[in-house]
Amino acid sequence: MADTCLGPALSFPSSDSHSSIINALIPFPFFLSHHPTFSLSSSMATTTFKTNNAHRCHSSSASATTNSISPQPQPSLLVFSGGTAFNGVVEELKKLTTRVAHVLPVSDDGGSTAEIVRVLGGPAVGDIRSRCLRLSDESTSEALAVRKLLGHRLPLEAQNAKFEWYDIVEGKHSLWTGVSKPYRETIRSFLAYFQDQILRRSDESFCFSNGSIGNFFFAGARIFFQSLDAAIFLFSRVSEIPHESLVLPVISTNDRLTLGCELWDGTIIRGQNEISHPTNGYMEPVNKSNSLVPTLPSKIKRVFYISSEGSNLLHEVFPSVNPAVLEQLKSVDCIIFAMGSLFTSICPSLVLLGIGEIISSRSCPKVLLLNGTRDRETSGFTASCFVTAITDALNRTSGNPHKCLQNPPSQYINTIFVPKDGQIPIDTNCLADQGIFHVVTVESIHDSKAGVFFDPKALIQSLSNLLLSELKI
C-alpha cells in the first residue's frame, strides 16, 4: 500500500468540481493580465485564445492588418519527433520561428512514466513534458525556478526518493525557492492531487525512484481534468511556452497505449522500452547507447498499437489520430521528420490513418533529419533504409490491405539533412531511385558517449536557408 505519511494537510482541486472549472474561465492565479483569457473544451483543437484586441488562434496563417504593413510572418513547421533527440535543437529553433507544432507519441513505457502508467493508467506523458520544458520561458529568475522544479528528478534510491518527494509536495524543499505564491499554490495543488490518486490505489505501491516532478504534475492535471489536452494546456501555461508553439500528442486519449513491433522473422515484441532499449527493472535509468543493449534477432518490419486490456495482449488496435495534428499538417509551411529512435519515436506517429494521406498531398518542403549514429532499431541501415521505413509507415504497407497507400517515397520526403561524418552511409544512388535528390550535409558535433549529432546552430541555419529558397520568405 502506498505510504500515507504526508505531514500537514494540503488542499487540492476537488475532482467533483473539475467539469465546472473546465467549462468556465479557470481562475488559476498564474493567469495574469499579460496572459490571454481562455476557456477549455473537451477538444483543445478548437480552443480560441482572446486578447484585449483580437481573437488569437494557434494557426499557420498570418493575421491580416488593415492600417499598416505587418512584418513578414514566421514560417510554420510541424515536427514529428520523440522526447529526447530533437530537444537539443529546440532552443536554437526558437530563434528562427516559434510557430512550430511538435507532434509526439504517447506510448513510452520506460522510466518514471512506466510507474505512473502502471499505477494510475492513462497515456505516457514523459515525451510531452520533456518538450514543454525545453520550450519553456527562461527570461526571468522565476521562470528558471519553475523550469528547474518541473525538470527535477528524484534520487534513484527508493527511500531517499520518497522522502524528497514528501519535502516537495509539502512545500519544504529548496526547489520552491524563487517560485512565487501563485505558481507555488497552483503547482503544489496538482502534485498533491497526484499523491491523493496514488493513495487511493490501496492495492499498489508506487515507487518514486528517479521520478520526474514534471511527470507527476502532468499526471495530476490529466487525471483531474480527465483530458490530456487540458493537461498540456495547463502545463504549457505554467511553464510559459510561446503561445505560437503547440505540443500535440499524436493520439489524444486518456487510455493507456502500448506499442508493439513485428520483426521480419515473425517475432512480436511488446512495449516501446523492450523494442528500443530494454532494461532490467522498472526504474532503471534509460540508456540508449547501442553498445549496451543486445541487438534485435531480426530487423523491424513494422510498428503497431496493441491492446492494453483483456486476455489477448497481442491484439492489434487502431487508435484515431489527434484531429489537431491533421489540421496542422494541412497548413504548415514545412514538415520535418526529426532525428531520434526511428521505429519507437517517429513511426508511431506516422502509422495512423490520415497522416500519410495529408503529407503526400502537400507540396511543401518535407525534410528528414538523418541520425548521426546507429542504434538498436537501425543496425545496418543506410539513408535509403530510413526513407523506406518512413514510407512504409505512412503507406501502412504491412497493415490492412484495404487501408494501405501506394505512394512513392518522394511524396513524403524531398530533402534529407545529413550530419557531417555520421555513421549512416549515404547511398546516393538508392536515394535517387526513391526520387530524392536534395541531400544537405550539416556540420556536426562528435561526442564520445552520444556519438555524432547535428550542430544545432548549423542545423537551424540550413533549415532557414531551405525555407528562404523554397518559400521565398
Automatic annotation (TrEMBL):
Coiled coil: none annotated. Pfam families: CofD. It comes from the Eukaryota. GO terms for molecular function: LPPG:FO 2-phospho-L-lactate transferase activity. InterPro entries: CofD (IPR002882), CofD-like_dom_sf (IPR038136). This is Gluconeogenesis factor. It comes from Erythranthe guttata.
